[in-house]
Amino acid sequence: MNMTRRRLAAWPATVWPRQGRQCTAPWRAVRGFTLVELLVVFAIVALIVGLVPLAFGRLLESAQYRDTVHAVLIDMRAARHQAQSQGREARFAVHLAERRFGIEGGTQHEVPEPLALRATMAAQESGSDGSMAIRFLPRGGASGGSVDVLRPSGDGVRLRVDWFTGRVEQEPIAP
Fold this sequence. Notes:
Blueprint: H1 2-10, H2 35-86, E1 90-95, E2 100-103, E3 108-110, E4 116-121, E5 131-136, E6 145-150, E7 156-161, E8 168-173
Antiparallel strand pairs: 1-2, 1-5, 2-3, 4-6, 6-7, 7-8
């Protein structure tokens, strides 16, 4: 404390007023924020609050799209693997009216509302309930077909199953 008093005593009276002394130079303590600084901060906060919902909506749609494409791709490849490893046919089914897809006898996935599904499959693989399926054969072939996952903007991806090899490939779809 003694050292602090010596340092303060070393300051000129014009800079650091002490014990009732008057300052000879105009000096005032700076405390708080100015009105301009507060207005700038409020404007920046308002801008951020206005843009966050737009960015969040796009982010949510993008995440739903990626998850749906990934789930369709994984289920198609799992059906192919299941058919080859178990030595019996496996079917990947799409129910367009109910907005769901998956391996028959397995977990069915729902398609989120902003996205759309389109399917092209063999006529003999269509059910009376509006379901469509791609049949994967134990020796590697398939009945063939494709599933399109579309965004509201019209672009998306086509997941195509080759009828000869049963391979699942994806390609972009432009609006």
